[in-house]
Amino acid sequence: MHYLVTGxxxxxxxxxxxxxxxxxxxVTVLDDFSTGAKANLATLPVRIVRGSVTDAAAVDxxxxxxxxVVHLAAAVGVRKIMEERVxxxxxxxxxxxxxxxxxxxxxxPLFLASTSETYGKNTAVPFREDADAVLGSxxxxxxxxACSKLLDEFLALAYFHEHRxxxxxxxxxxxxxPRQSPEYGMVLPRFCRAALADGALExxxxxxxxxxxxxxxxxxxxxxxxxxxxxxxGEVVNxxxxxxxxxxxxxxxxxxxxxxxxxxxxxxxxxxPDGGFEDMQRRVPDTGKLSRLTGxxxxxxxxxxxxxxxxxxxx
Length: 315
Ligand SMILES: NC(=O)c1ccc[n+]([C@@H]2O[C@H](COP(=O)([O-])OP(=O)(O)OC[C@H]3O[C@@H](n4cnc5c(N)ncnc54)[C@H](O)[C@@H]3O)[C@@H](O)[C@H]2O)c1
Known about the structure:
Helix content is 40%, strand content 17%. By secondary structure, it is of the alpha/beta class. It has a domain at 2-173 and 216-241 and 285-298: Rossmann fold, CATH 3.40.50. A 7-stranded parallel beta sheet has the order 3-2-1-4-5-6-11, sandwiched between helices. The protein has a two-stranded parallel sheet with strand order 7-10. A two-stranded parallel sheet has the order 8-13. Helix 4 (85-106) packs parallel to helix 5 and helix 6 crosses helix 11.
């Protein structure tokens, strides 16, 4: 098979490309290198098209000879979307629409990366895929990330229903591990870098908010299984770990494993001085659907995931 991976030079993308190449598939990557890096693909025999998913000509060029598309390119994470508000929405909405339309014209199967952010302020954890999206006010720009990804989901499912485009929508819950950059606010690489420098691990708010972290190798395994799963077509599927940890405890565990660092609590208003921010307390996936469809099981616990992230931060 020949796959197009948009955003293939990024964190999850580069691990996926590596796995596809390892199983003998051909890969083209379309990436604008805004948060991804060529170095992530340095040793891999892939065709790289440098360009934006918002550019139909670049998408057309990237699709030559391709059998299936994994759409990962996006302005990722709440901090990035708070800093580049218009570009973030444009990338995630117009970029996805451009990719979907090109896939529909060629009837190419499509995998869409969505996010656990789409559950928003819903408190009924663990989240099943049919749970409500509970978003905040448009005056709080952080919700635009979830909203843009929800629109992607609606559009992908609309293409499935109206044009019979084979689509699978996956919602990632805090995927982490080697190659994830600390630059865009992702918490575990940020904590690892701070601890290794014997510095302050900045915990926003009370630290009692919790998350579930999934090792990227387990996320890639889930993607590969879903790509080969006809029963997943037209479905939305969570990909995550059910092992929950508060952010304060995560900081403590990083400090214990690194043997250095200290917790420094700061108010949200100091972390996001431009305002427009609110956090959700808990975000736990129900991964029953993924397991039933594909037989997937997580293979790395939180401790192993932190150890790998620390190893990467130290290298
Ligand atoms: N890492 C997570 O925990 C997580 C959680 C939920 C959802 N996701 C989703 O998974 C996908 C991959 O995320 P990631 O964590 O690997 O982030 P990442 O930032 O490492 O990867 C995104 C990639 O897309 C590229 N890109 C951005 N804008 C582009 C554009 N306009 N045209 C072409 N390429 C562009 C970037 O250069 C980068 O290589 C994203 O769609 C993201 O929303 C990730």
